[in-house]
Amino acid sequence: TNGRRVGEGGVPSERREADRGELGRSEVGELERMPPKKDDKAPPPAAGGGGKQLKIFIHELDGYLGNVLGDVAKKHAAEGEQPIICGSLIDPRNKPTWADEVVRGDDILGLKKALLASDVIVYDLTSSPKEATSALKILLKYDYAENPEDETEKVMIGVSSLLSWAGNSEPLVDGVDGGPPTSGELNILTTQNADERKAHPDYKAQVAVENLVVKKGNVRKDKLRTYVVWSGLAYGCGEGVLHSLFKCSWLGTHKVLPILGSGANKVPMIHVQDLAGVVLNVAKTRPADFSTVVAVDRGEATIGEVVKAISTVLQSGEVKNVGPDEYLAFMTEEKEPHINSVQLGLNVKMAFDRAEALNYGPESESWVSGNGFVANIDKIVEEYRKWRGVVPIRVLFYGPPATGMHPTEDGKVMLARDFAEEYQVNYISVPELVEEFKAMAPFAEGGTDLSTKIQEATAEEGAVVPEELVQEMVQRKLQQPACRNQGFVLENFPETREAAEALFDVDTIPAEGEAPPEEEEAAAGEGQEPPPKKAPLPTTVFSLYAEEEFLLTRIAALGEEEAAAQGLTEEEFQTKMAAYNAANAPDEEGQPAGLVELYRQNQAKGCEQVVEIVVDNPLEFVQDKIRMSIGEPRNYDPNKSRREREAKAAADVARKEADAAAKKAAEDEASRSEREEQARLDADRLQKLQEEERESLLLRSQPMRKYLMDNVLPTLTLGLQEVAKVRPNDPIDFLAEYLFNADPQLT
After folding, report:
1. How far is it, in rounded angstroms, from Cα 343 to Cα 163?
2. CB 536 within 8 A of CB 478
3. More exposed terminus of the chain, fewer Cβ within 10 Å: N or C?
4. DSSP letters along 324-344, please?
5. DSSP H or E run through 243
C-alpha cells in the first residue's frame, strides 16, 4: 500500500498520454459496427453464480482505486466467500499482499484468459481508456455458444471521473456587496443528465469509452452486463488528487497551503472505500434497470474548506488563494499531474440517485464517510498516515544517568539523538527549546505568554528556567506540526510520575478512597496565550538499565573534563541516581508504582510498548533491539537513513583504509629515508677510515724513507752513474755487484 503509484488518483501515467486523445479509433469503430447479439432477456443471475468462488479482475491492482478495491473486496467478504483477486500491475514490484494472481500488462494472451475466466472485471476509464476498450472487445467477441462449458456470468464495470463532466462546471457568482464569490445555486446533476455531460477537451476519449461500455456492452445481458460508475473526487486511504496537499503539509515544505482561485467552488467527492463498496455492490446485485451510477457522498464543502481542513490537522491552518499559474507551479514542484488542478477547479453539484438500490442510502451503515471530507477529516488523516506509512514515531528514552550514552572508538553515541537522526524525528532538547521560545514573537502586544515568561526567567546570567515553564515549553513543542506529523524523541523527560501526568494525556489512578481528578480546561485571560493541550503519550518507551558499578566505570572512562561537561561528576551522578530510584520506587505494598509503571498502565491511551534494554551489551546489539522494536522509518523515503548509514560506514571504511595506506606510505618513506641516511653515513665513515689509514701509512713510512735517503739512495745514485760510464753488457748484475762491494758492513 506504500507503492509508488498509490494515491495518484487514477490520473493517466506518462506512457498513456498519447492514447488519451487518440483512443484506438479503429477499435472504437469496430465495436460500434459490431451487430448486437441476441438478447434472451433472461433474468440477470448473480455474478459468480453456480456456487463457484467469485473471481475479480482489476486492471492496475497497484493504482489508487485498484489498491483500495482489492483490499475492500478481501476484507469485507463474507466468511467462506473470499474472492480470487487477479489483475495487472503498473509496476511489477508493487504487487499487493492480497493479490492472488498477476498478469503482465504486455501478455495479451494471458490478459485474455484472465478476463474470460473472471466474473467481475473493473477498469479505471480515466487512466486506461484504451485498455478498457480492448477488454470490452475481448468480452464481446467471445462466443459463449461455442463454449457451453463456460458458465461464467460476467460483469464489467468502468469507473470514470468528473473529467467527463468538466464542461458542465458552472461559473462562480459574485458576492453580495463586493464580498467574495460564491458557488451560487447549482443545478443538481444525476445519471439522468448523462447525455448532457461535456468532457474536458483532453478527455473526450474517456466519454467515448463510457458510451461504448454502456451501449455496446449490454447486448448479451444473460452473459455480460456492463456498467459505468462516475465517481466524485476520490479521497481517503493513500490519497489521490489531494495527495500533494497532504504530502507537503506532512513534510512541512508548505506551511501555508495554496487554494486554487477563490476556493468557493464545490466539487462532488466520495471516499475511495465508499467508491469501492459501490463498485462491488454493483457487481453483486447486477441491477437490471440501470447501467450508470453517479457515486458521491453527502458532503457539500467548498475546495477552500477542504484545503483549510487539511491544513488545520497537518499544519497550522493557514491557507492562501493563488491563481492558475502559481497553482500549476505548485503541482509541478510536487510532481503531480496538472490535470488534478482541473478537477479541483470545477464547480458542480451531483447527487447519488442510485444510492438506495446499492445499499448506500442516507441511513446505511455501508458508508465510510457519508457526511463528506470535512466532517471526517481526522479519520481521513489517520488513514492517510497508515496507508502511506507515515504514522508519527513518538519515543521516550528513560533510564539511570549515563545509560543513554555509549562510548565508541571515535568518541560516544547518544542513543536518543542517534535514533532521532536515523528515523528523521524531532529530538526534544530543553536547552534548545529555551532559545527557540525566547526568540518567538509575543503572543499579543502587552500580553503574557510563554516567550515573555522565559525571557524574564533567564534575564540574569546563569538563571535556571523553572520546571513549570520547561513543562509548558515541551507541551507546546509536542503540539507543533512537525511533532504531530513526524513524531518526537524525548530523553529522560519527564523525570517524575507527577510531571508525566501533567505533561501527557494519561489515565491517572487516584489513591485509595479518592475520586479521580476531573479534567478542567483552563481559560486564557485577555491578552494571554491559550493554555497548551496535554501531549499524546510516547508510543514506545525504552527503559534503559545497567548496574551502578558498570555506569561508574563508563563515566570514569570519559575523563573528568568530559564527565563534568555531561553533568556526570560523581556528586551529580549520585544525585540523579537517587532521583531515578525515587521516581520508580514501589508502593507501600511492594507493587510497581513508579514512572515506568505509569507508561505500562496507559497502553489504551497510546503507549503501545515499554521495551527494557540492558545497555551493558555491545552497541550494535542495543541499536538492533531499538530498530526491531520500532520497525522501518516512517516517512516518504524510509530507506534514506539506511543509505546514509551505509554511506557513512563505507566512508569510514574508506577513510580508515586511506589513513592506513597513508600511514604505510609515510612509514615506507621514513624507512627509505632512514636507509638512505644510513647508507650516506656508512659511506662517510668508510671514506674517513680510508683517509685515516692513508695518513697512518704515511706516518709509518717516514723512518724508512729517511734511512733510504741517507744511506741507500746516495750509493744507488753512484752505482747508476758508474753503470752509465762503464756500459757493461749486464747492467743489472754490474749494479748489484757494485752495491754489494759498497756495503759498509763488508769493508
Report:
1. 7
2. yes
3. C
4. HHHHHHHHHHTT--THHHHHH
5. helix 243-251
CB neighbours of 274 closer than 8 A, spacing ≥ 6? 295, 297, 360, 366, 367, 368, 369, 370
- What's the pLDDT score for residue 523? 57
Phi, psi of 270 (to 5 degrees): -160, 140
* Sign of the alpha-carbon torsion through 212, 214, 215, 217: positive
Torsion sign (Cα): 366, 372, 376, 380: positive
Which segments of 94-138 are extended strands (E)?
101-102, 120-124
pTM exceeds cut of 0.90: no
Residue with cell 458521491: 296
> Can you tell me the distance from the alpha carbon of 720 to that of 725, in angstroms, rounded to the nearest whole number?
9
* pLDDT band at residue 591 using 50, 70 and 90 as cut-offs: confident
CA–CA–CA angle 329, 324, 313 (5° rounding): 75
Q: Which residue has the cell 459496427?
A: 33
Helices (H), 347-464: 377-388, 415-423, 430-438, 450-457
Rg of the chain on CA atoms, in Å: 45
Helix (H) or strand (E) holding 411: strand 411-414
Do residues 543 and 596 make contact, with C-beta atoms less than 8 angstroms apart? yes
663: CB partners within 8 A, 6+ apart: none
CA end-to-end distance (rounded Å), the chain: 135
Residue 16, SS3?
helix
Position with higher pLDDT, 43 vs 151: 151
pLDDT, one tens digit per residue, over 332-370 is: 888 888 778 888 889 999 999 999 999 999 999 999 999
CB atoms near residue 222 (< 10 Å) = 16
Beta bridge partners of 349: 188
The alpha carbon torsion through 135, 140, 142, 147 (nearest 10 deg) reads 130
Helix (H) or strand (E) holding 258: strand 257-260
Residues 6+ apart with CB under 8 A from 151: 49, 50
Give 377-398 pLDDT, tens digit per residue.
999 999 999 999 999 999 999 9
Distance CA 139, CA 156 (A): 9
Q: Which three cell numbers stand for residue 463?
A: 538563571
DSSP letter at 302 equals B
Neighbours of 610 (CB within 10 A): 19
Q: Which residues contact 442 (CB under 8 A, 6 or more apart)?
A: 449, 451, 452
Q: At 538, list the grid cell.
A: 510516547
Q: Which helix (H) or strand (E) holds 595?
A: helix 595-601
Task: Return d(Cα 249, Cα 276) in angstroms, integer.
Answer: 27
Please tell me the distance from the alpha carbon of residue 621 to that of residue 613, in angstroms, as a whole number: 10
Output the furthest CA–CA distance in the chain (Å, rounded): 171
- DSSP conformation class of 547: -
CA-based nearest residue to 265, from 298, 299, 305, 227? 305
The SS3 call for residue 591 is coil
